[in-house]
Design goal:
Layout lengths: L5 H11 L3 H6 L1 H9 L7 H4 L3 E2 L3 E2 L3 H16 L5 H10 L21 H20 L3 H17 L8 H9 L4 H22 L2 H26 L2 H21 L6 H17 L3 E3 L3 E5 L5 E5 L2 E3 L2 H19 L1
Antiparallel strand pairs: 1-2, 3-6, 4-5
């Protein structure tokens, strides 16, 4: 099965709901779905936006409905960080702490833009550490998310008592998965209450860029065809991400991220897509499997260009 387009991702979401590890992967999906539906505390985000750059939306209900529909499309087309990390482990790769954004940097991000993006980056790093059963580092990255959540005024989602419970259960991987998932559910609730959709957009982008960066590292270093294919298939994710960013036409901080994603999008134009047929089947457990014979092909040269750009963008935001 390929993670290629909207319908394929529906299978992934069904699969994710069946296990504790999958529940963690659903974070990025739940995050924005619960964060949509209201204005932002930032004045720029309250202004009318341009629909596809052409038609101004003056009705606030229509404005937020438009964002909500876009969010749903985004999250059913982008693999969650836990999925990408799972692929790395399944491919037999070894955990490499040096690839991650050091947790010590969490206190160094001083504005909401950098905090939002790095909360997404830490979410991807947390997924990576947890999948590779790095107990102490999973706890450390959860603590880093707590630090950024506090800085973003959603610290009630991860309080000190909660972190202590995680530390007490760090030798139990299933419990650790549960607690991490629970933490993100709380973050979702706080973001929904605050109605901060552009924070969601930045966080999601940060998580996606970090996952792409990690995937590219293994795809280029090992020459692994499976990881190279996963990187190529992100051609769909980048298009959806940029389209979503277009809904924040007056938000300078979102537009800065959009410009970076647009650079990657231009590189992804070199990926060759050959349409194929789609098949649908349901197993005895009621899980729907949607496959596609669509071919997504990428040259080694394009892979290395995408890897270099993903690393450059990611390093700019973690510095």
């Amino acid at each position: 099965m390929n993670f290629l387009h909207l319908n394929t991702k529906i299978y992934s979401m069904t699969k994710l709901s069946l296990s504790p590890k999958g529940a963690l992967g659903a974070f990025i999906v739940a995050l924005a779905l619960t964060a949509c539906g209201g204005g932002n505390s930032n004045q720029a985000n309250n202004a009318p936006v341009m629909d596809d750059g052409a038609h101004e939306l003056t009705n606030k209900d229509e404005f937020f409905k438009d964002r909500e529909q876009a969010l749903k499309q985004i999250f059913f087309s982008i693999p969650a960080p836990i999925e990408m990390a799972d692929m790395m482990k399944d491919a037999g790769y070894v955990y490499d702490k040096t690839l991650l954004n050091p947790v010590e940097k969490a206190t160094k991000y001083l504005d909401e833009e950098m905090r939002s993006i790095n909360l997404g980056i830490y979410a991807a790093d947390l997924s990576y550490a947890t999948v590779f059963d790095q107990k102490q580092e999973s706890v450390d990255y959860l603590a880093a998310t707590k630090t950024l959540a506090a800085a973003l005024a959603i610290d009630g989602a991860i309080d000190e008592k909660f972190v202590q419970r995680v530390q007490a259960n760090q030798n139990n991987k299933d419990s650790l998965m549960f607690y991490v998932t629970y933490a993100y559910q709380n973050i979702n609730a706080y973001l929904k209450e605050g109605k901060r959709t552009d924070v969601s957009a930045l966080m999601i982008s940060g998580a996606w860029v970090e996952s792409l960066y990690l995937s590219c590292h293994y795809a280029t270093k090992k020459g692994d065809k499976q990881m190279k294919q996963r990187v190529a298939e992100q051609v769909y994710s980048i298009d959806h991400l940029v389209s979503y960013m277009n809904l924040f036409g007056t938000s300078e901080r979102v537009n800065r991220m959009k410009a970076d994603l647009a650079t990657l999008q231009n590189l992804y134009k070199e990926v060759k897509i050959t349409p194929g047929e789609t098949s649908v089947s349901t197993n005895s457990s009621g899980v729907t499997n949607i496959g596609s014979s669509t071919k997504v092909e990428m040259s080694e040269a394009t892979l290395h260009k995408i890897a270099a750009e993903a690393k450059s963008i990611r390093n700019k935001y973690i510095q």
